[in-house]
Amino acid sequence: MAKFKYHVLVCGGTGCRASQSETIAANIKRAVAENNLANEVQVIKTGCFGFCEKGPVVKMVPDNTFYVQVTPGDADELVLEHLVKGRKVKRLLYVDPETHTAVSDSKHMDFYKKQLRIALRNCGFIDPENIEEYIARDGYSALGTVLEQYSPEKAIEVVKASGLRGRGGGGFPTGLKWELTRKSKAEQKFVVCNADEGDPGAFMDRSILEGDPHSVLEAMAICGYCIGADKGLIYIRAEYPLAIKRLKIAIEQARKYGFLGNDIFGSGFNFDVTIRYGAGAFVCGEETALIHSMEGKRGEPTVKPPFPAQCGYQGKPTNVNNVETFANIPVIFLKGADWFSNIGTPKSPGTKVFALAGKVNNVGLIEVPMGTTLREVIFDIGGGIKSGKKFKAVQTGGPSGGCLTEKHLDLPIDYETLVANGSMMGSGGMIVMDEDDCMVSVAKFYLDFTVEESCGKCSPCRIGNKRLHELLDKITLGQGEEADLSRLRNLATVIKDTALCGLGQTSPNPVLSTLDNFPEEYEAHVKEGKCPAGQCRALMQYVIDPNLCVGCTLCSRVCPVDAISGSKKTPHFINSMVCIKCGACMEKCKFGAISVQ
Amino acid sequence: MSDKVRNLQELRNLRDELKGRLLLREKSKAPEKLVQIKVSMATCGIASGARETMSYLIEELDQQGVDAIVTQTGCMGYCYAEPTIEVTLPGEKPVVFGHVDTVKAAEIIEKYIKKGELVDGIIPDTYNTIDNK
């Protein structure tokens, strides 16, 4: 078996390719051949290293030397110095910004790894349908330790000390929630896992349930012990069939091993979990609506207080936590509250999973310590914007969140910072937009969603959001007037202040944040009748440049509404009153004479 | 039932035994040959064809007489490069490959698994785990 002694890994991620990494790889290959090393050294193009800021990246294996910002001209030196003479090329090493020293040895190779996987620790690592693999990774050890060595009060203290906050969006301290439910006196209590993941483009919870269902079951049992509940319910939407299948398998296996059922670990503690299916209504992610849905009632929220901690499922004290929140719990007990609270920021300890989507190169599921900046997430882990376009905004928090812009890129991601800047953490959807996205249309998209998903119980949400949507529609159709902008803002503020539940109270956020961050774009729509991003069809105008048009008549022949006039070999003209902006003429024109304005 | 875990010590023993068994599995029969492959099979992976990749790997490795274990796992997070698989050759660190359709899978078997040569399209591990933090 002929094996290579050395591997040269050249980053072939989109970001690095844009800065000539393919030429670099080709040059290194050539230099390797020229130095008669072709039998010993293999040059490989890899996927993204997640360190695009310093790209193109070249890594030497097995000594793990990491070269950054390499250019095609560096290839010969890298081969001659590193591979032939065994000397590191110092000027291409990564310089630690804090210590100002060059990092070269493999001991310090983690600097470019911006991600830390806690909730996703087993995703993509174990077979989710095999409990033995989970046990081999310390699975159910946290439950065993808690049941044998902790009183419920002491276990709650650990969760409180860890500083873990609800990962479903609100960020309520988890330990405090458990304590409140524990203090409610009742014969029966419930633990509920909220797996009703509803934000467009978000799939964190689904991935955890599909990749590591036991971690959620283990945490629910710990929670049950802490608050004094022997029943757990997982509320999951029926449109997640694979997650449901794997959860069912996991529950069966856990029962077989005695991690669910009666007298768990010989402690006398009983706990079992059942699954409840939701029909996929967004509002049912709100805990009171979720509880009503589980009771077989309409999925409508009710005013808090009373909180579920006092009066929840079937009128009994109920602790509702999100999937990702639960997935963190076993690690907190295995590694200790101090370990956990040292990760992230003081007010928002730990990590957060994000579903990174939209116009980034590396669409994916990521987990970063709190306090990581948006720039690191989008440009390093995400690999930058697709097709080399310009970054415009990032939407966090789904329909309840807002759009953040260029000026927010260096802000650390945590609960407070996002809220202070008009967005929110939400459950972890993160949608990146580029220069081609019209922010008015984006706000309208989210309003579309909210109007559809509003349960209709309270009028601010039911009527107000519909009105907001109508105003946005009017603006994107080019019929807006300046007064509409203040109408938008007033109405949005009123809805925020008066709606019954979280859905209504946060639904105007996409409108408010785009109004705040992109006022010029709204103004262009209403004042100039223009859509700067060229997205609002009604505001576009197809125009023929008479200097480029040769009068071939092709456009007038393809126009479905006969809006183009002109005789042969003379410049044609588009009648914008008739034009339906289908774009067929522009597609057909061979001379590039037709443009959109 | 007798196979229930009755206390923490039993769980620890079981864990150690299972850890050992998973290792043993690697060291069974012919340790110098056994290859471990994990296929990322969450909804997203399956939608991009991970099931086809997995069956292809199982059949092909079997036909070619390569001693290998192919298992499923959850989402590795590289949605942009689905289907993704992780290959662990005996004595080597795991390597993740992206965009593994059946053509790529054939190349991986031919070059990496049989000859130990890397192929283009490796995804470098981009995250820290709780084990090293």
What does this entry look like structurally?
The complex is a heterodimer of chains A (597) and B (133). Chain A has five domains: 6-112, Glutaredoxin, CATH 3.40.30; 131-338, Rossmann fold (3-Layer(aba) Sandwich), CATH 3.40.50; 351-434, Roll (Ubiquitin-like (UB roll)), CATH 3.10.20; 439-528, Up-down Bundle (de novo design (two linked rop proteins)), CATH 1.20.1440.230; 541-596, Alpha-Beta Plaits (2-Layer Sandwich). Chain A has 23 helices and 21 strands. In chain A, a hairpin with a 5-residue loop joins strand 13 and strand 14. Chain A starts with 5 loop residues before the first strand and ends with a strand. The model of chain A has no long low-confidence stretch (mean pLDDT 91). In chain B, helix 3 packs across helix 4 (102-115). The termini of chain B are far apart. Chain B is globular, with a radius of gyration of 17 Å. Chain B has two domains: 1-28; 32-123, Glutaredoxin (3-Layer(aba) Sandwich). A five-stranded mixed sheet of chain B has the order 2-1-3-4-5, with helices on one face. Strand 7 (115-117) of chain A pairs parallel with strand 6 (127-129) of chain B.
